């Protein structure tokens, strides 16, 4: 069983689809599901040229490990998982997140991939700043981690 | 007392540096820190961008755990400011 999680400094390295495919490969696992998230060139009518990802590294790695272990326990303990997220300035078209899963069967592979992505969006301290063609930039809104009972 | 506030995401608009040193009354807790942040945001004329931040942000202790509003801050403690998240 393989579980690989990492934060990749975008200015130094690119997230590799080939590396992910190689890492999850297993003769015991007949299904593979891969999610590739890339920076797109438009958001809410604004032309985007890049996104800067800010990351609380220690907390994100902890959350990645916890989310992936939860996914394995929930769906398939024999699954192999590769999860990398970019940090720093990522131009349009480049990979910001890559989740690759191999599992015994297709249903579990799809479910693990989806589960990891949704959990990251709600649990991992990552922030996006979009850069626009006009030269301006904006931090995007997100999901608050403050305990709900405290928000009045 | 003084604390060091490590800035992430939109809270980076509060300073050019990664860490903001904040002066607080002795025995302050996270709730007092939220009040002080409201004043800082107002003084820096950032209400248009950051008005909701003191309400919606969470705070991490040095152990990377969320601390609640009653958490008593210690002198020179390092706290991380965690604005609403949205990776992927």
Question: What secondary-structure arrangement, pairings included, does this model have?
Answer:
The complex is a heterodimer of chains A (152) and B (88).
Chain A: E1 3-9, H1 17-24, E2 31-38, E3 42-43, E4 46-55, H2 57-75, E5 80-91, E6 95-103, H3 106-123, E7 126-132, E8 137-139
Parallel strand pairs in A: 1-5
Antiparallel strand pairs in A: 2-6, 3-4, 4-5, 4-7, 5-6, 7-8
Helix pairs in contact in A: 2-3
Chain B: E1 2-6, E2 19-23, H1 30-43, H2 47-50, H3 53-56, E3 58-60, E4 66-67, E5 78-82
Parallel strand pairs in B: 1-5
Antiparallel strand pairs in B: 1-2, 3-4, 3-5
Characterization of this structure:
The complex is a heterodimer of chains A (152) and B (88). Helix content of chain A is 30%, strand content 38%. Chain A is α+β, with helices and mostly antiparallel strands and 152 residues long. Chain A is globular and about 50 Å long. Chain A starts with a strand and ends in a 13-residue tail after the last strand. Chain B has 88 residues and is of the alpha+beta class. Chain B has a single domain (2-82), classed as Roll (Ubiquitin-like (UB roll)), CATH 3.10.20.30. Chain B has three helices and five strands. A five-stranded mixed sheet of chain B has the order 2-1-5-3-4, with no helix packed on it. The model of chain B has no long low-confidence stretch (mean pLDDT 95). The chains are: A alpha+beta (152), B alpha+beta (88). The A-B interface holds A 37, 53-56, 58-60, 62, 85, 96-97, 117, 120-129, 139-147, 150-151 and B 8-10, 12-13, 49, 55-58, 60, 64, 66, 68-69, 80, 82-88.
């Amino acid at each position: 069983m393989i579980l690989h999680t990492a934060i990749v400094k975008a200015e130094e390295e690119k997230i590799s689809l080939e590396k992910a495919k190689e890492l999850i490969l297993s003769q015991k696992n007949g299904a593979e599901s891969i999610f590739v998230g890339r920076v797109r060139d438009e958001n809410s009518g604004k032309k985007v040229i890049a996104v800067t990802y800010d990351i609380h590294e220690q907390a994100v790695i902890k959350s990645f490990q916890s989310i992936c272990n939860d996914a394995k326990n929930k769906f398939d303990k024999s699954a192999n998982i590769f999860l990398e997220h970019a940090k720093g300035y990522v131009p349009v078209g480049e990979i910001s997140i890559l989740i690759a899963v191999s599992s015994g069967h297709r249903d579990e592979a799809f479910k693990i991939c989806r589960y990891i992505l949704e959990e990251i969006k709600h649990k991992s301290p990552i922030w996006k700043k979009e850069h626009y063609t006009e030269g301006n930039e904006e931090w995007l809104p997100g999901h608050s981690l403050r305990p709900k009972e405290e928000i009045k | 007392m003084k604390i060091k506030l490590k800035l992430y995401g939109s809270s980076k608009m509060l300073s050019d540096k990664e860490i903001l040193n904040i002066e607080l009354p002795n025995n302050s807790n996270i709730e007092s820190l939220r009040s002080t942040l409201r004043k800082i945001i107002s003084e820096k004329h950032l209400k248009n961008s950051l008005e909701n931040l003191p309400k919606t942000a969470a705070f991490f202790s040095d152990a990377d755990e969320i601390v609640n509003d009653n958490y008593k801050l210690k002198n020179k403690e390092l706290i991380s400011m965690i604005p609403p998240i949205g990776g992927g």
